[in-house]
Amino acid sequence: MSQYVPWRTGDERLKLAIVRQRGDGAAVLYVHGATFPASMSVGWCMQGVSWLDHLQESGFDAWGFDFAGYGGSSRPAALAGPADAAPPFGDSVAAAAQIIEVLEHIHHVRPNTPIHVVAHSWGTLPARRVAAERPDLIQRLVLFGPVATRAGDRNTRPEPAWQLITSAMQRPRQREGMPDALPTPVTAQELERWCDAYLATDGTSASRAPASVKVPNGPMADIARMWAGERLVDSGRVKQPTLIIRGEWDDVTTDSDAQRLFAELGAAEKRDIKIAGGNHWLHLQPQRTALWAEVTAFLKEPA
């Protein structure tokens, strides 16, 4: 049975879909990235086990949720109109407000229980914002494949409210950053299974040719701004113990990106771990078990 947390933005009342694998230990909330929801990331089963399952088996109370406009959550009005009729929906400020709603819900359900946050890709941006602005809500923070500020050209074109993502756009991401001589980390059959499930996260996907998932464009607009030199969050205000973790071929979080972000973090306890044999989609690849092990070990460290 689906569970929801209410979230209000302007005049709209939306529902944020949450998923939970119950455990008696500390709570862990997973925050997804720019183009696919929790079911396609922390909830995705490979060989019968998802990351949520692993967190639960490791003793955690494991949670995930979908930002507004993704997966099982409400679609805002901005996604119903023409893409160019509204500014990018769901930027890091709006996303941080949603994370806070979910964290406060978890605190209500599990009072006096520490909560850790594991965020991926663009999701690390609003997660850092929440860690800085509401340190009472987060005990430990994991930044998996985080987006960092770069020096680049600024895009002066108007950004749309939403964008369409097809399977053809997602498939290459299993290989991005990898040496050409190496095979794709997962089989073609596994990749197609994921793509089919991804298209099914949007009930309107089959109405378009090619089939596609409509997602908020706020996240991609945020990334474009960050890669043009803007600092959308003050990482120096992040004081919680923080782990940066990434695959060795991650071209979204390069070595220089990780080094800059590491230096910016205000945490006294921080580390940067790079895992062999994976890229930005490490959590959907064979080396995901190494990712899980490192994250679990970090989260289990004593306060």
Task: Give a quick precis of the structure.
With 303 residues, this protein is α/β, with parallel strands linked by helices. It has helices at residues 51-57, 92-109, 124-133, 167-170, 188-199, 218-226, 255-264, 288-299, and strands at residues 3-9, 12-21, 27-31, 61-65, 115-120, 140-144, 162-166, 212-216, 242-247, 270-275.
Shape call: globular
- Work out the strand percent: 15-25%
Oligomer: single chain
Number of strands: 10
Helix content: 25-40%
Largest sheet: 8 strands, mixed
What is the strand arrangement across the widest sheet?
A: 1-2-4-3-5-6-9-10
Low-confidence stretches: none
Number of helices: 8
How do the SSEs run, as a string of H and E? Answer: EEEHEHEHEEHHEHEHEH
Radius of gyration: 18 Å
SSE-based structural type? alpha/beta
Rounded mean pLDDT is 96
| Beginning-to-end CA distance, first to last residue | 35 Å
Word description of this protein:
With 303 residues, this protein is an alpha/beta fold. Helix content is 27%, strand content 20%. The chain is built from 8 helices and 10 strands. The strands form 2 sheets. Strands 1-2-4-3-5-6-9-10 form an 8-stranded mixed β-sheet, sandwiched between helices. A two-stranded antiparallel ribbon has the order 7-8. Strand 5, helix 3 and strand 6 form a beta-alpha-beta unit. Helix 2 packs across helix 3. The longest helix is centred in the N-terminal third of the chain and has 18 residues. It is globular, with a radius of gyration of 18 Å. It starts with a strand and ends with a helix. The mean pLDDT is 96.
